[in-house]
Amino acid sequence: MLRPTATSVRAEEGYILDVEFDNGERKRFDVKPYIKGSWYGKLENPDYFRRVRTDGYTVVWPEGQDICPDELYTQSTSFTK
């Protein structure tokens, strides 16, 4: 079975992503543990963090930072609208 893919994403306060997947699930992913070093450290800038988008597979930022699709789905927490 293929893992669900991200169809939409919205950046929330506290470095949280609100992600909707192609199976209809909506989950939250905490990006805080990834924000370190020079590459992912750029996500600490709130304006840059909010520039997150989906690429039809996972979530990405303009300079190429992304989250492994498996982690994005399995490490997210389900919630309802």
Kindly summarize this structure in a few lines:
With 81 residues, this protein is an alpha+beta fold. The protein contains three helices and six strands; from the N terminus they run E-E-E-H-H-E-E-H-E. Strand 4 and strand 5 form a beta hairpin.
Task: Report on this structure.
- The chain has three helices and six strands, in the order E-E-E-H-H-E-E-H-E.
- It has helices at 37-40, 46-49, 69-74; strands at 6-12, 16-21, 26-30, 53-54, 59-60, 77-78.
- The chain has a four-stranded antiparallel sheet with strand order 1-2-3-6. A two-stranded antiparallel ribbon has the order 4-5.
- A hairpin with a 4-residue loop joins strand 4 (53-54) and strand 5 (59-60).
- The protein is globular, with a radius of gyration of 12 Å.
